[in-house]
Design goal:
Blueprint (H helix, E strand, L loop, with lengths): L9 H9 L15 E5 L2 E4 H16 L4 H7 L3 H21 L6 H15 L2 H9 L8 H18 L6 H16 L4 E2 L6 E2 L4 E2 L5 H4 L1 H6 L1
Antiparallel strand pairs: 1-2, 1-3, 4-5
Helix pairs in contact: 1-2, 2-3, 2-4, 4-7, 4-8, 5-6, 5-7
Length: 212
């Protein structure tokens, strides 16, 4: 099961969009304008803002918009966590020589939509977890990359030992990337492969695992 889902008046929509976290435009002294530095690559505050606004706009269009926003109150941190993890996973997949094609993503998503009861239902379910509709393919790709890396490691993601083996591999990759997060967003934990106290979606997100 997915754990977390048209039209609002103009004033209500504006109010919901106004509830999105406001992110300061300046970064740390060492990396102005950066939310994080990953393997020498900047994740800018403006990039983070754009993703957060994309999710909030989609949530505002939902009849349950207010509740969705309440349930994703730390969206900026969760989003940055995901952006950093994307880079770690991409590196881990390259090192393991794991690739995912567009066709792989389309086939996985088609099965997920069928199980969820349709494309609209799948989008609503992901939106409950702070994933905008146009980010679903990226989430699917990550799922497939994780599965591929786990297979190369001989790690069964359905068992604690397999999850731990995968976690150790990704932690090693993370440490090699020199991840530096703007202090206003917290501190990256290489051991857990996670930003501060945000949840760990790559291991615990049941919606991903059960749709595979």
């Amino acid at each position: 099961m997915f754990r977390r889902r048209t039209a609002l008046s103009v004033s209500a929509t504006a109010a919901l969009l106004g509830a999105a976290p406001l992110l300061a435009a300046c970064g740390s002294d060492a990396h102005p304008g950066a939310a994080a530095l990953v393997d020498g690559k900047r994740i800018t505050v403006s990039q983070l803002q754009a993703k957060v606004k994309d999710v909030r706009a989609a949530q505002a269009r939902s009849p349950q918009g207010g509740q969705l926003i309440m349930n994703t109150g730390r969206l900026s941190l969760a989003t940055l966590n995901g952006m950093i993890f994307d880079e770690v996973l991409a590196r881990g997949a390259r090192d393991a020589k794991v690739t995912v094609t567009r066709g792989d993503v389309q086939r996985w998503r088609a099965r997920a939509e069928q199980q969820a009861g349709g494309a609209a239902r799948l989008k609503a379910m992901w939106l409950q977890q702070g994933v905008a509709p146009d980010e679903i393919d990226a989430m699917v790709r990550n799922q497939l990359l994780l599965d591929g890396v786990a297979q190369r490691l001989g790690a069964d993601r359905g068992k604690p030992q397999g999850q731990q083996k995968l976690a150790r591999s990704l932690a090693k990759t993370s440490r090699s990337m020199g991840i530096d997060v703007n202090p206003r967003f917290g501190k990256w934990d290489d051991q857990q492969v996670i930003l501060g106290e945000t949840k760990d979606p790559w291991i615990t997100r049941e919606s991903v695992k059960q749709q595979a």
